[in-house]
User: Fold these one by one.
Assistant:
Number 1:
Amino acid sequence: MPPASLRRAGATLLFMLLSAAVSVRVEAQAPARPAAARLAPSLRQLSDNAPRPLRVSVTDEAAFRQWLARTRPGAAAEAEPHQKGLLRVQGLSAPVLADCPWVKFVQAADRRARPERELGGLDFGVNKVTAVHARFPTLTGQGLTVSVKESPLDIADLDFRGRLLEPDPLAATLNSHSTIMATIIAGGGNTSPDGRGVAWRARIAQSSYDNLLPDDGAKLAAQGVSVQNHSYGVDVENFYGQEARAYDQQARQYPTLLHVFSSGNSGQLPAPTGGPYAGLDSLANLTGEFKNAKNSLSVGVTDAFGLVNPRSSRGPAADGRLKPELVAYGAGGSSDAAALVSGISLLVQQAHQQRRGTLPTAALVRAALLNSADDVGRPQVDFVAGYGQADALGAVQTVLDGRFVEGTATTGQERVFPITVPAGVHRLKITLAWTDPEAAAGATSALINDLDLTLRRPATNQTWLPWTLSAYPHRDSLARPARRCPNHRDNAEQITLDVPVAGTYELRVRGFAVPQGPQAFSVAYELESGLTWTAPTKTRGLEAGATGQLLRWQWTGPATTARLEYKPVGQTAWTVLSASVNLADKLFRWTAPDATRPGQLRLVAGATTALSDTFFVARPLALTVAYSCPEEALLTWRKVPGATQYQVYRLGATHLEPLRRLTDTTLLLTTAEVAARYFAVAPVVAGRVGPRGATEDVLQEDHGCYVRSFAPRLLVTDSVRFDLALGSVYRLQAVALERQLPDGSFLEVQRLSPVPGLTMDLFDPTAPAGYSRYRARLTLSSGASVYSQPERVFRVVQAADVLVYPVPLPAGEPLRIVLPPNESAEVRLFDLTGRLLRTEAAEVGVIKRIATDALRPGTYLLRIRLRTGAEITRRVLVL
């Protein structure tokens, strides 16, 4: 006989196996929930049961297909790619499917995705992206890949040059939305500085939002995608569905892959009918059930002052979880805000690579982003702004400074991490995040593994709990401020402690209930204090003379004021811009001087002085292509006061690269250099390179080889004159007007030397009657000639004559009449029987057109009575 302990263990194991078998059999044959609960809320409200494309979650695909073939042979079921247990069904109504014993959940399969953007601008200073670019120039997203899931983007856009993965040249660009999103995330700044995105050296992959389920994870991994952006939505949906579950499942399968969703622009709409929050206006209105996923980020939108846009969609999720988690600036709506957070996520990932040599888990990226966010709206967390305004600088510094810990926990296990808080810290903030296992579609509570975060001070045994919101479905309850109490709904928790006493504290993470453990987790923390500038920066200055530009700083401390001052480089005295600014405002409107020069700002608050970067006040320097010839091109630009040199850039394999630095305001490009095609220029003032202007394409047809335009004053005239416009007179000796002779050669009829300027009037004093062909010939100092395109002119023979053309006249083409100078006339048209068909007036200086649509083929008489009294008759033949 085996020992009693072994017998008991064997019996326990047998009981567990039998229980599991029974559980599987019961789940497969009879779902626990009633049929109505297995329908998505939108399907429960339908008044008809008409068949529509539906997606079902099944417990046993083979058994479901057998049921379908036996009971509904006319219906069709197709497996969803890369999604086990999900099928797309046609030909059955939702209630019929919900009654099937093998079906767990039913929802609509085809909801049309829509971009969530309106027209607007861009300001990377709001979320401190410009500060990251200035302080951490190596954080560019290089080596990482972002995927933009929506409609195809413009693969010819210069800002994506050399960084698009698997571009499809045959894909139709349906709208500009995806191109704008990719530019915000990873634009290279090749078209202009405004085209530079957050992670401007990252690679860019694309996929379609026609499929609302996650993309093939294996393909995303093969492409190296670590962030996927979703700036689109459907109708308001407030439930945890098949798509939310699939995204949570993919997060578990690919722990370093982060999905970022826009929350939507439906913040003023009510929650959908059905569900616990039905009928509550301006709440629970995320645009898509996939945005209810636990392991992704949903992002709402603010204005440039940090105020949440009323149209920004808000939470809670269907089970009361906190949504959206973040907000960010987006002049074009929540689409822009999500794209910006996607770009920041890439920078956080690269920061971790630089510190640890590996990609961080998505849970750590979430923890860093949520912990560093600036509180906006109601204090602490809320269902409108989530954890607050995304702070790129704070998130990146969290990772670079190593202010995070990671570990695992099981049920009842507690992990303890000591942290030392120095004196002078204004706020201690800690955030716990973990990638939770996927729940069942339609679950009323999505959280599976429940962890608890607490902060303890050993010296006094004081403890602090996370901030938790009320999820009770009443407007007043949902608007209540967060309270310190255990959180058993969210897979992220945050504790803040204002003005902590210096000393040692303990961050404690405990497994409250971990049925699918051990559960990995990440904790990020920061010690907030002090005053720092965030905008303008050395990489992003201010526009000279522009009104209402925003100066930004970060302040964590008690309420106080400061003196704001400005000083141009080279001067010793500071100019007071405001004697008293409220530091808590964190911004100030200012009209910069209308002059190009570098300068600095400073804030003085008692013994504290904060200096900004040395930044440029300037207008972007525009580049002009004076001419573009096959063998060379000439670039010119305006002289900038104070500039000692100019930096010229050309487009390389992926980004603009320095080409040459010179003191002149012109640059002659060789044939080899012209091949680069795209160029820009920036001034160098006081040894610093200023802002460059927009990039110019030297091969654009409008530039031409010296000749901008060559056109006759009138196509039909009694004197032949041309207007010639040039791009440059550099090395130009003479300009001549030439007329083509009957043998095909050209005769010079006028010559200008020296060339009088960039525009001139050319004249042929001996022009023959009828049609003549002309061109302009430019003679260079090298002896070479440059020609304009030829133009044709019709010259009237006698000033007193009247021109009627064309004759004979094709039926339907208008008959044209040209009068002598300063003449008007009455025009009458007769048939050969003498019947008057039409009478019209011809005005001075206008080519009169007579419609002939109603005329049959034949001969007609045209009688023209001039204002001077003479009458002229013309025979007109209509073919």
Number 2:
Amino acid sequence: MTTQTKKEKLKDFKNENKFREFLIDFLIKSNFKDVIHTHRYGFPEQGKDIIARIEHPITGDDWFAFVVKKGRIAGGTNEIEMIKNQILQSFEYPYKGVNGDKIKINKVVVVTNENFTNGAQYQITESPKLSLYNNFSFWWNENLIPLIDKNYSDFWLPGDSFAKEFSKNFINDLQKEISIRDLSIQKVDDKKLQKLLDIFIEPKLTTDEIEEDKKTKEKNLKTKKFSIDKLEKIDTNILLSGEQGVGKTKILNTLACRLSHPQTIFNNQQIPIKLKALELRDYSFNLEESIHDIIKYYSNQFFDEETIKNYKIIPFIDDFDLLRSSEKTELKEKLKKYCDKNSTHFVITYSKSEISYNDSIKSIKIHNFNIKQIESFIEKFFEGTSRAEKFIQILKESDILSKLPTTPLTISLISLLYDENNFEIPATLSDIYTDFTNVLLGKLEVYNKTELLIYNLKRRIFTSLALKMLDDRVFEISLKDFKVFVNSFLTERAYESQTENDVIEIIEKSGLLYITDNNIIGFKQQAFIEFLASIEIYHHRRETHYSKLVTKFNDVAWQNTAIFYAGHSKELEGMIDDVIEQSPNVDLRDWFINSSGMGYLSQALYQTKPIERKKLVLKSLENIMKSYHHIKKMTEDEASVFYKMPLPLLLGTLNHWFNENFKSITLKNTLNISFDEIFKLDNNFENNFKSLMISTTLMTPNINDDEKFSKLIEREEFMSHPILPLIADFAIELGMIEKKSVDKAIKSKIETRIKKKREYIKSVLKEPAYRFNDKFALEK
């Protein structure tokens, strides 16, 4: 806003009384105390229109009197004489308060909303009547504007003082709300929180509407897209639904913020009020009382009982589904009564898409993020850095997005962890799931008479169930059996049993379980079972179940549990030896699953010494070589999936398999020392192929280290091998390693060697692998 525009706004007061009302607000914002409007009606009270006190730490309090005028003050005789008299009376006559106390004025300020000419000021300051007093000064538009800018900048915004004060404080609080603040383990840096708070990616919103077919007159329910812009214009009850972490609170707050801008409040004469369902308990769900206190809190010194009567209140109620059944019923009844009485409507968040309510309610479903929304979120979070593209690639390659709900909460947690330590998934997989379940289960309420069960006990209900499912290989349970399980768990620990309704609430509020129409219960993701089971074993069942983690390592579900288990500690040297020695390792399936699991296990144990994790790398390479010899024979078998597979494709596939399972920055040192150890061994095909697998893994975008690859290319025995240079070229061309980081001279050297073997390579690409002997010569 320009200075001229500000002058016009000051000039716009309809009368002197309106200008005085503004000055009172301005003085309060400028730290004046006991601001009194002495001249609300009738003549001035001994010249004083407003009085106020300001505190001084050294000289004590000063009482000011303000002589208030509207319009331009020039040198007119009548106007100037009136001002002189008001100044004189302000000093001569103390102000008598309602309790009879007399207040002596120390200073006087003459204020106008327009210009105060130099001539007028001169006539007043040089007046013989005022020669005994020199404690008076003048405020007019030019010197008043900087004071307003400094102390009451909200004045320039549209709307009245109440609307502006309420709006500023209300929006400020809403914009600070984020569920990740509730984390009990990971303390999130304020700067990172601010990044998340500043990001808003509008999710996909849909609503179901009944449409009538123009020809058949049949009524059908159709799902239609919706936008948050449309929400601003709705004047009916709104239900925002979606699973936990989907961003219901963010949408609710965003909508409340948009409706609480000063001009909007002032124009529409309505105020959005944010109410948290759980906090309403303190008010016994008395909406009138809680709304009154919230408005008073946010409007601060501008709160006025009469003023708020002119506004329609729109309750925004969050976390409705965290209440108990009886509380939900009570709140619904009181909410309906309040809205009917005040001709208003409500906006509410609830995990279910429908809510039992007599009146009409528009249900808006908030969907999980799709891949484009995820990419947009990450690009904004890592804005200004080169990390966004790399992180998006990591998410796609790790397939983590299929193992967790793709909600804003999930993406926020994953982004924070990656930003914190720059480690990829699955190195931080246990941390991701730990924080995710902390947020969800931290909101879950399980009652024991009048007390809530502590967080660790609530979590153990789920970890115990997950381990039971994993043990039994049964991943769904009936509601009846789940109730028996929960109550057995609680009563064994001297806690109160839960009713069926209580048990259903546990399911619905957990964010981890689902319940079908047939009352069948299960975890929403298989990964939740594996993660929660790992917690149960790590903290409570090591003696009975640790051996299962290593002996069943080639069972994918148990392997994932073992990797989660390792991630809780990040340093378990003994587990490495146990997995290598005790996990099955006798056939092709074992070799493949084993080598893959060892890659992820070595990443989860990223705080373990590289020399220990090297054992997993070497064992995995050993298994891949066993796979090579076995598959090579299978290329002769017509019944095999590998029938007629040529050698380059076989070796390229195995190289890629190792790359995919070990390409983590957490393994950079481990891979380097593994390479050095193998490179010193016999200079033969097997060791050179192992060296190639390690060096191309180091060259992947996740690590981007070309030192070992360059060293291998300099080895004559590697470059003169009939096949290996071709496999190295495959790795470059197929994008397994970072093309742009490959030195042009190295690339040229590889291509030159391949050209020399052109005829041989043609035959090796045509023939199945079994046709070549150990020296890679074609046998007749």
Number 3:
Amino acid sequence: MIKNNLLLTALFTAACGSAFAQTESFDLNSQRGEKQDVNMVPGKQLDHHGIVVNPTPHNLNMDMQTWTDLSAGVKLIDKAGKFTNDIDFLKQNAKGTPLTIVFGEKQAKKAGLKKMVSGAYLLTVDKKGINIVGYDERGAFYALQTLRQIVESPAAQGKVPALTCNDYPDLPLRGVVEGFYGEPWSHQVRLSLIDYYGRNKLNEYVYGPKDDPYHSCPNWRLPYPPEQAKNIHELVEACRRNRVDFVWAIHPGQDIKWNEEDYNNLVNKFNLMYDLGVRSFAIHFDDIDGEGTNPSKQVALVNRLTKEFVKAKGDVAPLVVCPTDYSQLWAKPGPDGPLAIYGNELDPEVQVFWTGAVVCSDLTKETLDFVDSRIKRPAYYWWNFPVTDYARHIIMQGPTYGLETDITDKMTSGVLSNPMEHGEASKLALYGVADYNWNVADYNAIDNWECGLVDLTPEAHEAYRTFAIHSCDTETGYRRAESWETNTFRLADFSQKAYNDLYGEFDRVEKTKSTMERDCKNQLLMKELKPWLEQFELLGKRGKSTLKLMKTFRNGNAQNFWNAFVANRMTKEARAAYEKHKLGTMKLQPFYENAMDDMAQEFFKNLTGEVPAFYKGMGTYPTLATTQSKLMFDNDSTTYYHCGQSQSTGDWVGADLGTVRDVREVKILQGRNSVDDVDYFDNVVLEASADGKSWTQLTGELLKTYIIHWKGEPVKARYVRIRKAESEKKSWIAVREFMVNPTTPESLNFKVESANLDAAMFGFDKNPVTSFRNSGKTSFTVVPGTKAYTMLLNVEQNGAVKFNQYDKKGKLLASTDINNSFFNVNLNNKAAKAEIEGNVEVFEVIAK
């Protein structure tokens, strides 16, 4: 399931060619509605006494005083001959400790298994040896995975304690869907993941990468090329070894024709996959529009395939289908809705996917009640976590949570995780998905995460933990807690203790990359994390230097501070690199952004006695209070603030001007573009207020207006906003620019001349963080009474920069070398014009 309309457009354009004409009206972005609440991770870390089993067993009793030494090996007694290749973690020895494995319903009943369900097992270790009884082959295999984890635990060291483990899964379907948009997993990563599924008792892998053209359009009707077919067969065999069902999914809905020819095309493709060893199939009708969305025809197709393919073959599992209405946000709820049609007409053996309240959402009884009552079966929960195809600059490494722990198999048949395109880095989340599915009531999210870090990187788990705890949140999508152990602070709240604590954390952040490069043996993981680890190291350095800069600011030396401030800014290239691979977005990077802004504003106030023209975002969307809103004020129309939340009538986005000002002009650019973007208020009013309570309308209702430009008699206001008037639109809101009283040549009381006059205005806008690049000469007339100038610059080494003074006739009175970024100069009493000459970045020219 995709979460971004621009990405969807690009993908359909690339993958479907001329078929895109059918999809251009499809707007999934308008159907999004993730809440922006950030809930804390539930649970607490436990002491496992050196033995961790994942997923958490229902009944595990160990006698830590009685141990069996397995260093001499085990004697395998495998009556079914199924498990010889599954005990590679133990040495085999005909004279070793007996390891007996049996399975079957009859044996399970005799042994007293707690539940007679697929995957259940009884594992016992006593003086006589090790005994395993599985309800089925899969259950016996799972018992071996439990034994493996105990034997390989730090406390075991080649021994195993006396124990009884009578265990079973709560949910029958426990899996992973490769169903994201973006680069599909490599064959190597897929194989690595399948082994991981088996070790953690996951039993389904749904193969459905959106960017596999032979899974979706345009080539779903065609056979896989030989090399790809060979790889799929290898995946099927790897799944069999790990007792995982390989489910091959097809996504035909965008261009399917409801006729006999395409039915035969579908059956033929299923037969081709059957010949590769596939015995489980899914049909996805998600993220489409047009004729393919017809629920009655979808149901008729699935029912016919069930009768003529699944049951005719005899060894094929019941089908799984993803409906077009896969989310409660836009699902038609009535008795004639698509889900009700599924419930009334779809073969009862067919499983139905469901993503919950919205595309990315928590698993709750409420949403399951909604869907189950309509489809008349427990839904198969497609959980869009830790997927990041809507936030590809993020790599999700936080805990797996958002799953209610009183869910039963009567409510859902299981939870299927849709991971990131970074398969190896997704294992940390899947460790939790496996645990939850197996033992719902005992799921402990924070403890699972702590154990998962050690499981994935035992040699470097402390460094990995530092990385992971600061790489959790999506910023605007499915929000996650991040950096919850770190306390940041603003300039006004500076204390030595707060400084020391935060400096220590930034120091750990800076060292993480080198530590993991040295110690982590998981090279597939390191390959995926590499660009983020590089940015993490820079983030640590940036945080430490910012803390030091705070001390410099507090020491009060203006020149030292400004020089260090300029050096601590992120370059355009550094910022672009960070935006591509972001982390620390909830606390660490905002600390840097806020600290730099706080210092710049206070510095300007101290120099001038004025409140700088530095504006802050505000409004009904929670993310406006974060540094994300700065993108509205960066004077760059290619960047934008994006709310991440469905809009409603009365919502608003505004600017706090810092103090009451005479507002004379407002220019706002809505949307990610001004042509056809869906994310804007399509009925909007511009308003201003001095107190934030009483608002004055500056315009009437503006319909379908991307560009709002108002000029008029000055209005006393501290706050300016755009408010959504009555409208049915539910998409997000994006704002590229929010300009109030933009500095223009006409707004100044002196004349400026420059090769790029518009850019030069940033040197006179009373905002110390905006700047322009002077590459020749910029001159400005001297306002009578001006005695001196203070200039905030960025003077680079070896730059020949001068400050020139001229009289009324243009005669040069003085020329002074500018060799410091903080430059003070007294004026000649005859000076009528001043000039900056040379290649230099100019932040602010302050007349004294």
Number 4:
Amino acid sequence: MKEQRQAIHNLWINSFRNNRRRNIFVILALALTTLLITSVIGLGMSFIEASNKQTVQRVGTVADANLNDLTKRQVQLLKKDPSIEIIGTQQTVGAVDSQRLKNKKVQMALHWYSKDEWNGLRKEAINNFTGKFPEKENELMAPLAALKELGITQPKIGQKISLPCQIDGKMYQKEFVLSGYYKEYVIARVVDFSYVLVSKSFADKYGTAVNSKTYSIKYKDSNNLGKQNKALAKKLKLTETQEIKTTLRESSQSATSVIIGVGMFLAIILISGGLLIYNVLYISIANDIRFYGLLKALGTTKNQLRKIIFNQSLLLSAVGIPSGLIIGFAISHVLIPVVMKATNFSEAVVVSTRPLIYLGAGLFALLVMLLSSIKPANYAARVSPVLAINFTESKVRKGDVRSRNGGKLYLMAWRNIFRDRKRALVVIISMTLGITSFVAVNSIVKSMDFEKFVLSEMDYDIMISPSYTQFEKDSSESKMLEKQQVSQRLAQLAKENDNITSAKLYFSAPVSVTYDKQKFSNYIRSYNQFFKYSKINEKQIDPNNFNGEVINIDSDELEKLLTKKDQKSFDKPAFENGKIAFVQSDQPKDFANVSDLQFTTSDKQRHQIKIGGFIPNDYLEFQTRGAPPMFVSKQYLDKIAPDAGIWNAYFNLKDKNADRVSEQFQQFIDEQSVYKIMTKLEMKKRAVEEISTMRMLGNTLALILALIGLLNFVNIITTSILARKQELATLESIGMTRKQTNKVLMFEGGYYALIVSGLVMTFGLGVTYILFSIVKKSATYASFNFPIVEIGISLILMLAICLLTPYLVMRSSSKHSLAERIKE
């Protein structure tokens, strides 16, 4: 028995060594499949993890939700809640009132974080932290971007920084010591705002009830945030003016859609990779059937034959699979950082090397390898020695050929394709999936319409707004003069520029409204319910300074708004003449006892106007933290406040000159400090930067998947022709010329190309549209375009490969003499 086992072992080892060409093909197929699976999944996982990391960086926290204005009892309940992992606290103490910042149109807050907030929720969102958290009253920590805004480009720990601060309406000149600095990314999302961090000692000394604390929470389980937030709100018994708010908007895309999309894509990868291994192994074992028949004739048992085939499969797997995994691991560490750094993920590079990726890829390749061995192994074990010795790859069935034109080359090629229908089906499926994936991914990436993306974010070509907050008290005459001059210039541009197709200019002026606590108490409560994070503290209202704003609105715009909200029509002449005003409020009943408003303008003139109706809070979301905003006609505003400045301005431009005019407005606004500008041109540039990552990764992935299908075809055709070389040599010996043989093989390739083309144009387009529909749910700006370019490129490339591969393989194999090829 021992000698027999040794003989069998030597037999399959020698057979393995003698089949070098077969071994190379199988090893390459295994290595390529595991390489592609690990690289594609690794790249995808890295992209997802980098995207998550970048999201955390741009939001600036890993917290799941924020809560405002909690009572001591609510805070205690929050701390005892078993579902919460981390509770952080933060508070805005004041603002840096620097002229340098005003000139740069940047607002900077003095902010405080608790140690739990910083260490547990914020630190993960920053990079390059140097120094320590501020503890003493005069210590300060700041992001590098904020220090740069203050003119400090090379910060040093212990460096003294003198800052003019505005805290609770009072001015202070504070000298801080820099205790730490770091790189943060929130400024990439909010470019006109920054902050510096102060110590708890400083916050305790200067913080007031006006600057209320915000509590950040991170759940132990971050799934179903909406459900958990509702449960927590109920447990804390949040009031109408308190709110629990997620730090990120949860995706509206359903989990089912995500699973379907990812599942379809992963299925294409696995099926294509599996077919690549199956085809090469199946054909290579089928080619050795004669050898196995000879072994059976010499007395080898069925189980011994199966063992020989499985042992060879395991040995090939032991070489091919680790090779693919090692190369995939190396490529991931080299390629992924390069790809990420070339995109907008340069600050969030993540190389995903989870063991599960490599374990799964290796097990999948091994499973396919063993399953691919079962059928040919069973056939080799069952077939009789006589049949095995006379085995041809496939035979033409009786009755299949009865045409008088049976000798036509194109008919011979068609019959050759379907002699082995399973093999033909595998080839067709493999190429169809590969090219379909190329077309689908490319089409989806191409569907990310930059123009529609910008339109979904921005309704106007140009948007101009103040570079200061509505609550900033700046009585500087030079500042007021600058605002008036810029406002006049903008209004003049709107009238004179022929490239402006439509314009909306909202002028506003500060007023002081006569205060009556009983009359305005209900309004203040409703206001606080809507603007939960910018509430009015009724206890701190100064009756002599109940400040608000009066804003103009166009009569036609007001009429459209009221019609949209199903409100009754209004007295347009009375509105134009300044006899009535519209108040911003969602609760008209709050003004049941207030028929008119008395107010004083900046020139100390007293006015009175009747309330004619109401404008919803969500229309312009104008905040005053005091008296209700009043909307009047431009004619009336010019009468009571001729020096009113522009609050917001919106312009639409002719498409032909939009970019040029946008740049002109950009240059004009950049030259002054009281207004900032956002243009659709700038938004497009940002959109291109954001989408470029998706396009780059998508195109790379699509190309890889298309190559899987084409390489599958090359492998199958190559091994198939090598398996049929004796048959082809026999045909040549009875009169078939080399040119005719090449034509038959090229016809076969051409038929494959035509069949696959038809499937891509039907099945492929169907899959593409389904995947696009899934993407459309989360990217509403996407628009489907028939992928004619992608289909054209892929089909032309496929046709070239299908025609050239058989010719080149036949040319290479025909270097031997005819007699040698017949004997093989």
